[in-house]
């Protein structure tokens, strides 16, 4: 759960024309929905420059957020964010209300750490290949991680890390694994023209045997 807070106000003027007018005032339309069965969706207005700044934080997309509506706070997650096709400006945002026990299915980013200090790269000339940069998790809102960390520091050359190799936070599951799809997340391969120590030794031995 993050400490990100978004300020919003309710709006009554709805429709495409109203949204265009709202954007001309430096705000964008948004909506919050979900929660208890009797709770209705609420149309919102959010300051454009504020949400643009907030969206620069990776955690905005994979965290439980604090949404303050007319000064009253509730917990939400980002469900959708529409951008202008040419300028990439944020045009509309959808939030869903959550509680600690709400089951979420969210994409969270992968952080690969200690890549620069990895012996397989520094010493043996290996190359790290990222197959996946985010993973879809299933968990309660209270357990939602902002990111999943993979330590590459001691990974050996020729190794492939699969989903089943990842140490997950408590209460977090990977949707792909639940469906039996143990995808490759990353690997360390030998760069073209560079041999690791074992391969070099085998090649030298073969050359010596040929000379004899």
Might you state the CATH topology name of the largest domain?
A: RNA Polymerase Alpha Subunit, Chain A, domain 2
What form results from the Cα inertia axes? Answer: elongated
Q: What's the architecture of the largest domain in CATH terms? A: Beta Complex
Strand order of the largest sheet: 1-3-2-6-5-4
Helix and strand succession?
A: EHEEHEEEEHEEEEEHEH
Helix content, binned percent: 10-25%
What is the total domain count? 2
Question: How would a crystallographer describe the biggest sheet?
Answer: 6 strands, mixed, barrel
Strands, count: 13
**Average pLDDT, all residues:** 88
Low-confidence stretches: 193-212
Give the CATH class of the largest domain: Mainly Beta
Distance between the termini: 67 Å
Strand content: 35-45%
Number of alpha- plus pi-helical segments: 5
Going by helix content, strand content and strand pairing, the class is alpha+beta
User: What gyration radius follows from the Cα positions, in whole Å?
Assistant: 24 Å
* Corresponding CATH superfamily of the largest domain: Ribosomal protein L25, C-terminal domain
């Amino acid at each position: 759960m993050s400490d990100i807070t978004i300020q919003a106000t309710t709006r009554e003027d709805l429709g495409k024309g109203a949204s265009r007018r709202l954007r001309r005032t430096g705000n964008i339309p948004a909506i919050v929905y979900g929660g208890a069965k009797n709770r209705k969706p609420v149309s919102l207005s959010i300051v454009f420059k504020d949400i643009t700044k907030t969206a620069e934080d990776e955690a905005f997309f994979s965290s439980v957020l604090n949404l303050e509506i007319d000064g009253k706070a509730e917990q939400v997650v980002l469900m959708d964010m529409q951008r202008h096709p040419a300028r990439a400006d944020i045009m509309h945002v959808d939030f869903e209300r959550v509680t600690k026990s709400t089951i979420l299915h969210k994409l969270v980013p992968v952080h690969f750490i200690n890549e620069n200090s990895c012996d397989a790269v520094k010493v043996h000339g290996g190359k790290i290949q990222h197959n996946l940069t985010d993973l879809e998790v299933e968990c309660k809102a209270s357990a939602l991680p902002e990111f999943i960390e993979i330590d590459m520091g001691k990974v050996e050359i020729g190794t492939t890390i699969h989903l089943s190799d990842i140490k997950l936070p408590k209460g977090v599951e990977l949707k792909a694994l639940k469906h039996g799809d143990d995808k490759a997340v990353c690997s360390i391969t030998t760069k073209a023209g560079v041999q690791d120590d074992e391969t070099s030794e085998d090649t030298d031995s073969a050359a010596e045997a040929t000379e004899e």
